[in-house]
Amino acid sequence: MQQEGRLLNSAEQPPRLSIVIPVLNEAAGIEAALTPLQPLRISMPIEVIVVDGGSDDDSACIAAPLADRVLSSPAGRALQMNLGAQHGKAPALLFLHADTILPDGAIEQITQALNGHAWGRFDIELSGRSGWLPMVSWMMNQRSRLTGIVTGDQGMFMRASTFKAVGGFPEQPLMEDIELSKRLKRLSRPACLKAKVVSSGRRWDEFGAWKTIRLMWRLRYRYWRGFSATQLAKEYRDAR
């Protein structure tokens, strides 16, 4: 199912960027996430594609007037983002989590970065209660620069042709961003922009900063060792 939002883009101007946002039960925060994008739908222009994974709250209804399209998909971030990318009309894609806010000038920076790179990401700043979040953010940014591996909450962007060439996100329940990064690295290293997206640190606040760090490093290590994403997703759910 597809809902058409109130289009703000000029019909004569094709979008420069398709922003794909997967959601699942994000009614509490989706309006705050989409509102900053509204001026960009007029001035750039961009298109905003929200892909709902079967929410049982009002996520889709709240998003509809603030997006160009709201699509329905089976739950699963990779499935949802692939569907959104299929409907994108722009030559470039940005995958944005529903609790992540772009920095000022983000669209121009993406455009400039893609003139010399096939893909890239932003630095991240995690917001929340834990005093460890600045350190966690720094570690995420440094690790990404060193390894060329990008996490989904860093605002992954790429040329649409590049996304298609590598087959999109692997349709697995966890580590889809890691696997896509590995595929993209075969083409080039990412553009690592210093401008920061601000993303919610709620999982660190809810589960505990050090517990979350240990959990994520253990899962990443096991994935590197060849454990299946399905098995690791079960471990992640059980730990949480």
Can you characterise this structure?
The chain is globular. It is of the alpha/beta class. It has 11 helices and 9 strands. The chain has a 9-stranded mixed beta sheet with strand order 1-4-3-2-5-8-7-9-6. About 2% of the residues have low confidence. The protein has a single domain, classed as Alpha-Beta Complex (Spore Coat Polysaccharide Biosynthesis Protein SpsA, Chain A). Helix 10 runs antiparallel to helix 11. The longest helix has 16 residues. It is found in: Cell membrane. Keywords: Cell membrane, Glycosyltransferase, Membrane, Transferase. InterPro entries: Glyco_trans_2-like (IPR001173), Nucleotide-diphossugar_trans (IPR029044), Trfase_2_rSAM/seldom_assoc (IPR026461).
- Quaternary state reads single chain
CATH superfamily: Spore Coat Polysaccharide Biosynthesis Protein SpsA, Chain A
Q: Which strand-content bin applies to the residues? A: 15-25%
Distance between the termini: 32 Å
- Individual helix count: 11
- Number of DSSP-assigned strands: 9
Structural class: alpha/beta
- What is the mean predicted local confidence, pLDDT? 91
The geometry reads as: globular
- Whole-number total of structural domains: 1
CATH C-level label:
Alpha Beta
CATH topology: Spore Coat Polysaccharide Biosynthesis Protein SpsA, Chain A
CATH architecture: Alpha-Beta Complex
Radius of gyration: 17 Å
Unreliable segments (pLDDT under 50, ≥5 consecutive)? Answer: 6-11
> How much helix is in the residues?
40-55%
The main sheet orders its strands as: 1-4-3-2-5-8-7-9-6
SSE string: EEHHEHEHEEHEHEHHEHHH
Query: Sheet bearing the most strands, described?
Result: 9 strands, mixed
